[in-house]
User: What shape does this take?
Amino acid sequence: MIDIHSHLAYYKIYSASYLRGMIQNPETTTPRLQGFLNAFLGDKDGHRHLMQMDTAGIDRSVLLIIDSSIGMEPPELDIEDIYRLHSAVQKKHPDRFIVFAGVDPRRKNCYELFVKGIEFYGFRGLKLYPPMGFAMDHPSLENIYEYCQRHRLPVLIHTGDSLDILDKNFSKVKNAIRVAERYPGIPFILAHAGYQLKEPGMSELLGYPNVYFDIAGIQVLLGQKDPVAFDHLDKETLIQFSRKMVFGTDWPLFNLMTPISEHIIHIECLLKKNGLSEEQVKNVFHSDHLIYK
Assistant: This one.
């Protein structure tokens, strides 16, 4: 089983404003916030994450770096230290963790930073977070996309909702059409789009062979009394979408209190209830083709 969408649960790599938004209380006092961070986001070496993976039967997880230093107040660690930390975790557990380099294209050395992440630190893909304030086709991403296309590196882009303090106009899923068309050699993974199939642009993106939709965040449907994810789709369209869906946990966001293994059981049930077959659900949880090149 592959988790295509997770993060290192360590508070020093995130902006304080991002963390306050994550716990949905921008007025949280410093002592209270620090207590939360120490309790839930102190997994610097990924040990707690690994235990969750083992229990849930996850073979490998992709750790996504978020470069938040430009769009928000800087985290405690600078981007170079964040890269080094993720590299250390990947080197310690090379058979369990894969890292995607996060970069903000407004950073002056964004291309050099990304290439260093791939060629020096051994990262295996690109993570973009547009609601920080940049377009998916920002001019400074052109060289980075071309590099990814030459080396067949996957690019995972945040789409859909984000924190209230960020700009969701940049993360509309339809914005991905331009880059998917321009760079057919890049496997694009649109984060969170796999359970929001009514969004404008989804039907067009379904036709691109290089586009996939991760279901990280589908956990928000689990608390609903009668969750419905794909009720508007005919059977044939649902089958087509199921071939594009890939599993992601968004660890640790949805697992501060609930173990990953419990969520997987409920997600499998939700997908089957909404029309996916046993084989289709199995394929969602095995996105090996995106990380083994």
